[in-house]
Design brief:
Layout (H helix, E strand, L loop, with lengths): L17 E9 L15 E8 L5 E8 L6 E8 L3 E6 L15 E19 L6 E6 L1 E2 L8
Antiparallel strand pairs: 1-6, 1-8, 2-5, 2-6, 3-4, 3-6, 6-7
């Protein structure tokens, strides 16, 4: 309940979310149309940290035909959002384009994760967005 996150009008929203999230569907289209970064086909994990401390996040990718890769490490600052494109993850190795994968996202503090993909392989762009599966420990609001 969203109303449970508010404490008598003080809007206390620290620590909303979970510590583990799963995006079972991942795919970066290998081609793009248009010009500039806004039109590059991409996959994104949109992460929200409502808490007072940084969220240290590790992303591990799972593939249909090889061992997992990761962790990729990112930090979501306190009370901020980070829209992390999988295209921009390079360590321990670049995320492959044109390959199916899934991701497990683990944070040391509760966060909220949403999955978005822009497919610009043709001029009529396609945008997909869905909430990730919340698999980790639920945050409690006091």
């Amino acid at each position: 309940m969203l109303s449970a996150a508010f404490d008598e009008g003080t809007r206390d929203v620290d620590h909303l979310g979970r510590t583990t999230w799963i995006i079972a569907e991942g795919y970066i289209p290998p081609e793009s149309t248009g010009e500039g970064r806004a039109f590059v086909s991409h996959e994104t994990a949109c992460m929200l940290n409502t808490g007072p401390a940084p969220a240290n996040v590790e992303i591990t990718l799972f593939f249909p035909d090889r061992e997992p890769v990761g962790p990729y490490r990112v930090v979501v600052p306190p009370r901020r959002t980070l829209h992390q494109r999988f295209n921009d993850l390079h360590e321990p190795e670049p995320v492959p384009k044109g390959s199916d994968y899934a991701s497990v996202i683990v944070s040391d503090v509760p966060i909220v994760v949403q999955h978005t993909r822009l497919d610009s392989r043709q001029p009529a762009l396609a945008l997909l967005s869905t909430i990730a599966f919340p698999a980790g420990t639920a945050a409690s609001v006091t």
